[in-house]
Amino acid sequence: MERSWIDGDESAKEMLQRVLKDGPPFFLLVPPLHRVPLRLGNVIELVGPSPSGKTHILMEAAITCILPREYGGLGHLVIFIDLDCRFDISRLSHLLNHRILLLNANDDLHQLFVSCMTRFLYLRCYDSLQLISTLKTLHYRLQKERETHGVGVRFLIIDNIGAFHWVDRAATQAPPQGNYRKCLSLQSVSEAVVEEIKKLLLVHPMLLISTKTTVLGDKFSTNEAKWNFGKRSSLDTSYSRNISSSTRQPSYREYMPSVWQSFVTHRIIVRATDNYFKLSQHQNLSIYSSEWLLPPLSFSDKFVVKDAGVFIVS
């Protein structure tokens, strides 16, 4: 048997250099995404009701990507696709400025801010057809931006992947109107979106982070079967095992088609709690909780959202 592949002798440093050079790099992102190392090609779904800090977490991840390496970032481009059409660019600017001030940078702060913002690429879609068209043409946009900036896109962010779900579902139930009904059918739209993203990830390795607003239900008020990912699941049990019946926290029902569910590699659920973190005598911050569903972890985190970032609290 050929054993030459295990006869090599290299140090841990040499091994890490080889792996990071030949394979996709891994990331440890901002809380609550910091528990699991992530690689290019992973698809993260951030699930939760509104409000639960999902968009803020996306902004913090984007800022980490666009900051230069010498300031703790990745120095790469981010594409942010806004499907809710409620993105607040002034909020992103405020968070970025605050992060830069905390760095105590010796460089021109304004120039650093401008260079970071040029690496943030924002797109907005108003329906599923526009989303599919955007994904189909994104390959050429990515090539052009790489030539312009000298670096590629590392994060593809979609906020909120389920924004058009109910419109597409209603279109599926509408009377046939030629090919228009087929184009807007729920299954065909999801298949097209996943197919186009897969094509992009093959040519342009990126980390995909997507949010999804939950459909809420009270799991403690009825004896109905739990819904998670379209069927009764141990992951749903993982979500609820640490929650006492007295808190009456809402569960959520999976509504995205199976083609999207199977595409997701990592899933984390976030939600607001009834507790507050005392920041000062006159200011309290809402405490949010998070739990990894895929891969399932045996614990949950509590975190608060501040201008300086997302912070875990005990």
UniProtKB/TrEMBL annotation:
CDD domains: XRCC2. Residues 18-215 form the RecA family profile domain. InterPro entries: P-loop_NTPase, RecA_ATP-bd, XRCC2. GO terms for molecular function: ATP binding; ATP-dependent DNA damage sensor activity; DNA binding. One of its GO terms (biological process) is double-strand break repair via homologous recombination. GO terms for cellular component: Rad51B-Rad51C-Rad51D-XRCC2 complex; replication fork. This is RecA family profile 1 domain-containing protein.
